[in-house]
Amino acid sequence: MRYRSVLATICVLALTVVVVFGGYVVAAALSQPAGPPITVAGIVRVSPLSGWEVAERSAEPPSVRLTRGSGNLDVFVFPFTGTPVELATEYVEQVLRPQADRLEVSRRVQLVRVGSRSGVRVAYIGLFRGVQFQIEGQVTAVVSSSGGAVVFDGWAPAGLLQYATGDLKTMIDMAVIR
Amino acid sequence: MGTMESSPGFRRGWGRQTSLFQIRRPAFWAYAVVVAGTGVFAVGAQSAFRQISPSGWALSWFLLALYALPVFLAVYFLDLYEREPLSLVLGAVVWGAVAATTLAGIGNQGWGLVVARIGTPEFAARWTAALTAPFVEETLKAVGLVLLVLIASEEWDDVMDGFVYGAVCGLGFAVVEDVFYFIAVFGGSPGGVLAGFYVRVVSSGLYGHVVYTALSGMGMAYFVSRADEVPRRRRVLVAGGLFLAAVAGHFLWDSPWLDLFPSRVESLRDWLLIPVAATVKGVPLLALAVVGVTLARRRERGWLEGALRSEVERGTLSAVELGLLLDPAARRRSRRDVRARAGAGAARLVKRLQKEQVNLAMIRTRVETDDDPDLERQRQYCRSLRDALMAIPGAVPWAGRTQVG
Asked: What is the pTM of this model?
């Protein structure tokens, strides 16, 4: 009787662990790169997860846009010397603001690691010309040792970014910067 | 020494009372460790909400207390005859409020990543809530109920008991989840909290976690309490079916299906549409729960009758009194009539007598023999109350018509 009681309690706790933490394990197992990695200007290599496709490539500045539904990841390579914070600021002011009718950028700057390099991340929300809805995004800026800099701009219509953040974070974390 | 007769409606052990604190049972320690561990996070979350909006947080708890207290009492007293031990009932509330909410917060997020990985952001935005919360939250609340079964299975006598434990566990969950919504989703300002209270409690308070977990609890109680009467296969089907009904109801609530809720609330019409939309989504499951409770109460009434029939033959109580005990409305009416005829003191005495007659039934189900000293003592007590009542002129019109032993 006591043995059955102990066994039943262990089973209940095991079920609890599966329900509470199983999602993270399954999500990690599903977050594997699919297809060949994409290299931008020989500086950064990004491995798209399943479902993500190349929507656009550009040579000036060297960039690629990966997309999945309404989730997007723009990867830019710039020649740059400075700190990641300065890079993020310059990207916001030189690339995003000129296209925006209204733009709010988070004051909080998050320190992140991309592969073996450290970088910064800022969030933004804005109304961009030619787009009917608000765009929500996260800019991750990393300066490479080879004189280039990489900006990851993950974005989606407002309210939807939270559902793409997991994929965006995984792809940025797995990116290899030379 | 006489032996207890086993009439068809007689339920042995119905009147037993066990507490939550069964320190020899591993399930108790599992319960205690999980509640203590999650309690740290739960307190931290409430502290954060209080810092975000002290007035909104206080107003949230005040309003939710106005809702939760009457619901708790209604659920508790709905179990007419054999009320559950308070420590176990409060244990169910605490599991729902502390352990289930904290663990569900972690679990929902993890499974949300899976939904986002499988579908596009648009799909995830529409379906994440429906594809995660019903499974995660209903399972975690049910886990608490299973632990309570393992702690005190003897208290799960019938479906009605499962209803009580399940409903209060769901109530605990709903209250803490509502505080989260009032602060994090409705903004936490007093206006936002009031709007949240209107949407989530006034409009939808009848349909949510209380009903879902009540159904799970009823299924669990059916499985546990009918082991001697119903084949295991059928018990599994009923328990599993009720749990799936709870999950399905929760799924419908969170899904975009049958969604009549206004996308923006701008006019009075929009405000009025909210309770209508909530009713469309919530009434089917509420109806199922009402049917379940009605059937369970009918069954408990049968047990009470079974336990007291021989006491009528013995003359401990009259057939009229037994009839009153079996019909809650008639019971209340009888007390009103006595108050009108003989005053408030007599009415209180009738209430006491009726309560002790129910206790007599509980003792009968607990003891082994018909002449057990506890049973005999309770009979004497009921008779003494009865004698006191009869001494009040006009208080007991039925007493003269029945012989009292």
From this structure: 0.90
CATH assignment of A33-177? 3.40.1000.10
Cβ distance A160 to B125 less than 8 Å, yes or no, reads yes
Sheet-wide strand order for A176-177: A38-40, A44-46, A176-177
Q: How distant is the Cα of A44 from the closest Cα of chain B, in angstroms?
A: 24
Domains in chain A: boundaries? 1-30, 33-177
Q: What share of chain A is helix, strand, coil (3-state, %, to 5)?
A: 35, 45, 25
User: Would you give per-residue pLDDT tens digits along chain A (178 residues)?
Assistant: 678 999 999 999 999 999 999 999 999 999 989 889 999 999 999 999 999 999 999 999 999 999 999 999 999 999 999 999 999 999 999 999 999 999 999 999 999 999 889 999 999 999 999 999 999 999 999 998 887 899 999 999 999 999 999 999 999 999 999 8
Q: What is the CB neighbour count within 10 angstroms for residue B310?
A: 15
Closest residue of B to A167, CA-based? B117
ipTM (interface predicted TM): 0.89
Inter-CA distances, B204 with A101, A119, A141, B156, B180, Å: 40, 46, 45, 29, 16
Classified as helix, coil or strand, A58 is: strand
State pLDDT tens for residues B215-253.
Answer: 999 999 999 999 989 999 999 999 999 999 999 999 999
Chain B neighbors of A164, CB-CB under 8 A? 116, 121
